[in-house]
Structure formats: C-alpha cells, structure tokens
Amino acid sequence: MPNSRLGKRSADVIVIGGGVMGCASAYRLSAEGLSVIVLERDEICAGASGRNAGGVRQSARDVRELPLAIYAVKNIWPTLGEELGVDTEYVQKGNLRLGRTEAHLEKLRMSVTENTEAGLDLLMVTGTEAREICPYMSEEVIGASWCPTDGYANPLLTTFGYYRRALDNKAIFITGITVTGLGKAGGALRKVYTDDGVFEADRVVLCAGYHSRAIANTVGIDIPVEREDEEVFVTEQLPPMFDQVLGTADADFYGHRTKHGSFLLGGVSGLQHFTSNHDGHPADAYTAPSLSRAIIGFFPVFADVKIIRSWSGHFDACADGVPVISNVEEVPGLTIACAFTGHGFGISPAVSLAIKELVTVGESRAIDVSELRYDRFRAKQ
Ligand SMILES: Cc1cc2nc3c(=O)[nH]c(=O)nc-3n(C[C@H](O)[C@H](O)[C@H](O)COP(=O)(O)OP(=O)(O)OC[C@H]3O[C@@H](n4cnc5c(N)ncnc54)[C@H](O)[C@@H]3O)c2cc1C
User: Fold this and answer.
1) Residues 67-74: what's their mean pLDDT?
2) How much distance in Å is there from the Cα of 113 to the middle of ligand 1?
C-alpha cells in the first residue's frame, strides 16, 4: 500500500538520485517552469556528492568530456555562488600535476598535447618552475603540467545550494525511497516503480550513481558501470601554504587546502577491491598509510602533519572512463546521466545544463556531449 506521506505522485519530470547531478538538474528544470519530483534512496547528498574532494579540474580529462569541464569553468563556476545564494568556496588558483620520472613526464606531455589541442589552456613546466608556483614540493619533482584555470569548491555547500534553489522553484524532494524499476506506457517511459508505490512522469532523469545500471536494466538498457571506492582524509588545520590543486601523473593522490585550513587529500590504495565489498562506507586500513607515503614523497613538509579524520565514498566507474549523458532512443522519455568515474563534481554545473536541454529540447546545444551517448560501447571482437 503506497504511503500517504508522499502526496503528489506525478510530475513533468522525475529525477532519480539526490546527489549533485539530481539537485542541479532539479534546479534547472524547475527554473523552466516544469514540475519536478526527486526520488532519493537515502538523504540528499549522501552519496559521492557528499564525500568527494571538491576538485574542479579540466586538465587531464578525456577529450570527450573536456567541453563540459571547460564550459563549467568559463561560464558557470565563477558566478555559481551568486546564482545559488551560497558561498561555494570556489577557488581558482590552478592545478599542478606532478612527475618524478621520465615515464611520468611522458604521460603528462601526452595529456597536455591532447588537452591543448582540444582548447584547454594547459602547459608543461619544469621542476624548478613548478616549485616557483608551489615552493613546498620535493626536489625530486622534475616536471609538471600546469593548468592555471583549474581549482576547487565545496561539494556539500554546492549540492545543498542547488537543492535549496530547486525547493524555491517548488521542486519536490522525497528521501528514503528506493526506485526499483522503470516502466513504459504507449511505447514511452511513464512509470517509476519504488519500494513505496508507483510514480508517473513524462520525462525521467536517471542519475543514481552506480545504481543507475540496475535501474536502466529494467527497460533493457545496460551501461557498463561498476562501483569503485575511494578515500579522502583531512589533515589538522595548517598555516596557509599554497592554494593550488595537486595531483600526480600516476594519480597516487590528489588534494588541496580548504578554506578553514585543513588539507583534503584523496586517492586509493590499490587494494580497495579486496577490502570493501559491501555497501557501507568503510575506510580501510591500507589507504591512509598508502596515501601518506605518496604525499610525503612529493611533499616532505607533510611528514609530521596529523590526519584528523578520513572517509570513503563510492563512485560509478565506467568501462571507458567517461560519463554517459544522453537521451535513450529505445526508451523515449529517459535521460541518463551517470558513470562519472570519480570526477563528476567539477563538471556538474555544465552536466545539469546539458540535462536540461536534453529534456526540454531533445539535444544538448550549449555543450557538445555527442561523444557521451549511452550506445557508444562496443565489445572488442
Ligand atoms: C572519495 C571521492 C572523491 C572524489 N573527488 C572528486 C573530485 O575531487 N572532483 C570531482 O569532480 N569529482 C570527485 N568525485 C566524484 C564525484 O563525487 C561524483 O562524480 C559526483 O558526486 C556524482 O554525482 P551524482 O549525483 O551522479 O552521484 P551521487 O552523489 O552518488 O548521487 C546518486 C544518488 O542516487 C541515490 N540512489 C542510488 N540508488 C537509488 C535508487 N534505487 N533510488 C533512489 N535513489 C537512489 C544515492 O543514494 C545517491 O544519493 C569523487 C568521488 C569520491 C567517492
């Protein structure tokens, strides 16, 4: 028997998932005058959106998703706080991706060539030049890629900023409800089945992280995405040292200093597949020591710094490393936005614009997402 607390059960658009993608999409769609219901299994921002490190990075992106990253940084991030009425803590002081070996530099050069050809302002710098930008790194750093327009923001403040603006626009958010499947009527998507009855909408936006796969499967669509786990830890408050976002050629760790003075440093141990095979959010025994070793190798200044807490989060890793942002031809009415592969936060303001256009005009006009279709996957043989 459906629960009466839920009230309205139909809308122009149902959004599945209350992470940054769901909240930002709800905001944009409700701003168009559409009625929107967001269905969230847990709480708003309880998934990857509330657990990420906040990197707003364009550099070292696959060129298929680079248009989203460049658009977001050029046109949305600088004024997003004003638009949402919150301080998103957006800082744009650049990103250094560091190398200590010739093999690292080769990797960095390749990504600099690809990204600059695709229009990003990115260059290689020597170790000495990198230390001029950020004097705290080890003498072992022999080169880096440098993207002066990269930065970071606060994911919780951003997601809740979108959420509140969507509420202002009369979007309805229902939490603690699990979507179990989708159903068609008259050849188009119409029904959203939940553990608390059926909802109906003309359009459905599916942005439920790695759970999107099981939900899309119920209407015959498969997105090759699986769950990956990653950890972030927080250092004690430190004196201001530098504001650049840091990363390495081999992605040993990434991070930056937050507004209140702690550093957020994230990454994986390489053993996460063997240590976290359940649905909770455990931090394992390997990651913090492994990240610490990597960080101290590049930044000896961190050797005696205390870690005050850590957390883990799941993300939706795609077979080819870039998201799916697409309408689905076999299921008219369905828009999918998932498979962000651990770097969706930085592009989320642009993704929500693409979603709005996919829903309202059938194609993403402001930003080219044609390489991110749901049907791009092909088996090798
Ligand atoms: C540790 C970590 C660090 C990261 N660091 C960065 C970074 O520095 N920069 C960056 O750009 N990105 C980063 N990311 C990735 C980024 O967090 C994600 O790409 C982004 O948050 C994806 O947003 P989302 O809304 O798609 O997913 P989520 O925030 O996971 O939201 C999906 C929502 O769907 C809900 N849901 C799932 N199943 C159902 C269901 N059946 N019914 C209803 N609701 C359902 C979930 O509860 C969840 O709230 C990181 C991720 C992690 C885990």
Assistant:
1) 98
2) 30
Whether 162 and 276 map to the same domain: the answer is no
Its pTM stands at: 0.96
Long-range contacts of 2-9 (CB under 8 A, 24+ apart): 2/196, 2/197, 2/198, 3/196, 3/197, 6/174, 6/177, 6/196, 6/197, 7/172, 8/37, 8/172, 9/197, 9/198, 9/199, 9/200
How high is the mean pLDDT of the chain?
94
Nearest to 56 by CA among 27, 94, 20: 94
**C-alpha 131 to ligand 1 mean position (Å):** 34
Question: Is the CB–ligand 1 distance for residue 48 below 6 Å?
Answer: yes
Query: What is the domain count for the chain?
Result: 2
Q: What's the pLDDT at 276?
A: 61
Ligand 1 contact via 16 beta carbon (within 6 Å)? yes
164 and 298 part of one domain = no
Asked whether residue 167 falls in the same domain as residue 306, the answer is: no
Whole domain around residue 173: which residue ranges?
A: 9-50+156-224+320-372
Specify the ligand 1 atom closest to the Cα of 314: 53
